[in-house]
Amino acid sequence: MSSLSYQHVFEPARDPTAAPLLLLHGTGGDEHDLLRVGRQLSPGAALLSPRGDVLERGAPRFFRRLAEGVFDLADVERRTHALAAFIAAAAQHYGFDASRLTALGFSNGANIAASLLLLRPESLAAAVLLRPMVVLDPAPDAVPALTGKRVLISSGNFDPIVPADHPTRLAATFRRAGADVTLRAHAASHGLVPGDFAAAQEFLAATNSR
């Protein structure tokens, strides 16, 4: 199976100073969902947007779950490595700078971006995680070295899907690994609000200035 087998969209960079973005949609989305968001938050950046290759009652996802908040961890690991292989192949095929790749993921897309950082940290330089959950919970002595990587976690204080302690637990895991973590909470549900986009835009602008 080709490493470029994910159905995807790629838009080449118009601004070579902008870090390329990996766009990862939420459950039921597709490769077109976050294109406009990516263009608005980081104008001119190269955009790589795959469609999750797992179907849950017809809704695309990036890995299987057994119930709401209950994940098939073997599938999470397998799909994370598959996505990392896709990213490496896409970087070679399209010629973008993989060392600067920044994930922008929402919900299920944020969760697999977090899994990439924990299982295949070479795949990402930074990540914007919008409404992530704790999926992988490595022991303190089992976290990878994430020094030099930047992570924004953007959560909703009234999110009925993400348990209230998950954003801080996820932030603690990344900080323990040495990542530079920004944690933002908004008066919001699982849906995104203007504060999420403002925080992401600020984070991406700082990433592009490096």
Tell me the distance between the termini. 36 Å
The biggest beta sheet reads:
7 strands, mixed
Tally of helical segments: 5
Strand content: 15-25%
Report strand order across the widest sheet. 1-3-2-8-9-10-11
Poorly predicted segments: none
| Quaternary structure classification | single chain
What is the helix/strand order? EEHEEEEEHEHEEHEH
| Helix-residue proportion | 25-40%
Spatial shape: globular
The tally of strands reads: 11
Quote the average pLDDT: 96
Structural class: alpha/beta
Based on CA atoms alone, the radius of gyration comes out at: 15 Å
Give a quick set of tags describing it.
210 residues; two-stranded antiparallel ribbon; 5 helices
Compact overview of the structure:
With 210 residues, this protein is α/β, with parallel strands linked by helices. It is built from five helices and eleven strands, in the order ββαβββββαβαββαβα. The mean pLDDT is 96.
